[in-house]
TrEMBL record:
Pfam families: Aldolase_II. Residues 15-204 form the Class II aldolase/adducin N-terminal domain. GO terms for biological process: L-methionine salvage from methylthioadenosine; monosaccharide metabolic process. This is Methylthioribulose-1-phosphate dehydratase. The lineage of its organism: Bacteria, Pseudomonadati, Pseudomonadota, Gammaproteobacteria, Alteromonadales. Zn(2+) binds at residues 102, 104. It comes from Alishewanella jeotgali KCTC 22429. InterPro entries: Aldolase_II/adducin_N, Aldolase_II/adducin_N_sf, MethylthioRu-1-P_deHdtase_MtnB. Belongs to the aldolase class II family. MtnB subfamily.
Length: 213
């Protein structure tokens, strides 16, 4: 075992993220190596999942240290997620963000293709209060929707433009692709992910039953 692997084995953040990956996979939100996760390590760096791994079978060595001071967003220890630039942009936009979780659930993927505008407003759900800052089911809760692209730096640029108009409430949806959720701790990121997945599932069911988007 080299030094880096040894350090990661003992890193409680890495261990916690691997364990959360198993829970997320048990919900069927990261099929076929889809999804990626990260946890902040410092002001300018995070541990990011290695590309192409089964996110339900991560071990600490699969979490690669990446610094966004280096424009390459590379790691000497392997190839970080293809979507690392989006994680890095979120960490740059809000220094309070501690963890970012990206999933490919069936519900979020299908819903994202029905949400045709660049934002979808949720209202009327008690579960909206799972999102930090939301105090009532009557409050309007917007979910930003971006078109999918393989150009992740371009997507990160769109995110920055949208965020500068108004910070996003702990999630965004990429059309035909999946959900990103984040938080000011790993536990909060998990709660936001579960809350948003629940809200999206409910809206999808409502649209299926009523035909009304
Ligand atoms: C299984 S295809 C999914 C990928 O294209 C991508 O969207 C994804 O979420 C996982 O990419 P990865 O590079 O493993 O982090
Ligand atoms: Zn993805």
């Amino acid at each position: 075992m080299n030094n880096t692997a040894h350090v990661h084995q003992l890193n409680p953040n890495a261990i916690a993220l691997c364990s959360l990956g198993r829970w997320i996979a048990s919900r069927h939100w990261v099929p076929a190596t889809g999804g990626n996760f990260s946890i902040r390590q410092g002001e300018n760096s995070a541990l990011v999942t290695a590309s192409g791994k089964d996110k339900g079978e991560l071990s600490p060595q699969d979490l690669l240290p990446v610094s966004w001071q280096d424009e390459q967003l590379s790691s000497p220890h392997g190839t970080p997620s293809a979507e690392t630039a989006l994680h890095a942009e979120l960490y740059r936009l809000d220094p309070a963000i501690k963890a970012v979780l990206h999933t490919h659930s069936v519900h979020a993927t299908v819903f994202s293709r029905l949400a045709l505008a660049d934002s979808y407003l949720f209202s009327g759900y008690e579960m909206q209060k799972a999102i930090t800052g939301i105090k009532s089911h009557e409050q309007l809760l917007p979910l930003a929707v971006f078109d999918n692209t393989q150009d992740i730096p371009a997507l990160a640029k769109q995110l920055r433009q949208r965020w500068q108009q108004k910070p996003l409430p702990f999630a965004l949806l990429v059309r035909g692709h999946g959900l990103y959720a984040w938080g000011h701790s790993l536990e909060q990121a998990k709660r936001h992910l579960e809350g948003w997945e629940f809200l999206i599932h409910c809206e999808l069911e409502r649209i299926k039953l009523t035909g009304l988007p």
